[in-house]
Amino acid sequence: MSGVMKRMGMIFRAKANKALDRAEDPRETLDYSYQKQLELLQKVRRGVADVATSRKRLELQLNQLQKQSSTLEDQGRKALALGREDLAREALSRRAALQQQVSDLETQHQTLQGEEEKLTLAAQRLQAKVDAFRTRKETIKATYTAAEAQTRIGEAFSGISEEMGDVGMAIQRAEDKTAQLQARAGAIDELLASGALDDSSGLAKDDIQSELDRLSGGTDVELELQRMKAELAGGSSTSKPAIEGGQGQSQAQSKDVTRFDKQ
Amino acid sequence: MIVRIMGEGQVKLADSHFTELNKLDDELLEEMEGGDEPGFRRTLHALLDKVRELGDPLPDDALEPSELILPAPDATLAEVRAMLSDDGLIPG
């Protein structure tokens, strides 16, 4: 069959299952179902209790009627002893009416008793079923939880392996990047050395400047040496008069220095 | 087998009636696919009447899953076609 009926039925079922799968935690459903069963059991028990109460009430009524009946019997007997047959007749006729009520109540009582026994039995059976369901429910829940945990573990494992893959990729990327940077640094050094790239740090100098620096540095050193030598040579002749405090000598010395400076 | 008429309720049908109903159902599908709106309407009504005539209605509070589902009597060809499309009856 491939008609409209069948196809609509299939779609309906597939969709309903999908909706249920999405929405239902089977453990919650089981608990809910158990709750409903307990409520039902409670109702049955309440029913049993109601029937038992009605039975008791009937029993009380029956006792009362029976007492009244025996009272009327006594009254009839006494009336007869006193020669009041009319009174005795009245008492007995009332008693007969009461007896009719008693027998009606007895029938009701029997029916109720039967009902009560049936309900008690039903309640016991239901209790057993509910207990069995509870055990089964707990087993199913435990199995479901275990299955769920297993799935989670499986997922975690696959997650870990994926993550490990990611870490491997990251290391690979870092290595690639390092190699790339090293290659680039090498290239830049070469380019800087060849003068193809300017060093913006200002630390590196071109070879002409270096040579000039070297030459001027060397000149300075030579000049410094000569000055020190001159100081040492001149110092030995001027040191004594300076200590002795000769004014003219110190003037002559300053003239020397001036002359030296001019040279 | 239990058949639901959308918007109406469920009926229980003896399996022996299905040969007869299938003819109408296949006809309905052909008309739907061919875009024959008057034919589709006529056949749908005939099919629904037959189901109502042969089936015993289920009480409204019965919780029986339907094995077959029929569109509502006032459903249009386009509506039924949409229901049978990939997205189905309940979107998502």
UniProtKB/TrEMBL annotation, chain A:
Q: Which residues form a coiled coil?
A: 48-143
Q: Name one Pfam family in it.
A: PspA_IM30
| Top-rank taxon | Bacteria
- What keywords are assigned to this protein? Coiled coil
Region (Disordered) spans which residues? 227-263
Q: Which InterPro entries match?
A: PspA_VIPP1
What does the sequence similarity comment in the record state about its family?
Belongs to the PspA/Vipp/IM30 family.
Q: What is this protein called?
A: PspA/IM30 family protein
What lineage does the source organism belong to?
A: Bacteria, Bacillati, Actinomycetota, Actinomycetes, Kitasatosporales
UniProtKB/TrEMBL annotation, chain B:
Q: Name one Pfam family in it.
A: PspAA
Q: Where is the PspA-associated domain?
A: 1-92
* Top-level taxon of origin: Bacteria
Q: What name does UniProt use for this protein?
A: PspA-associated domain-containing protein
Organism of this sequence: Streptomyces spectabilis
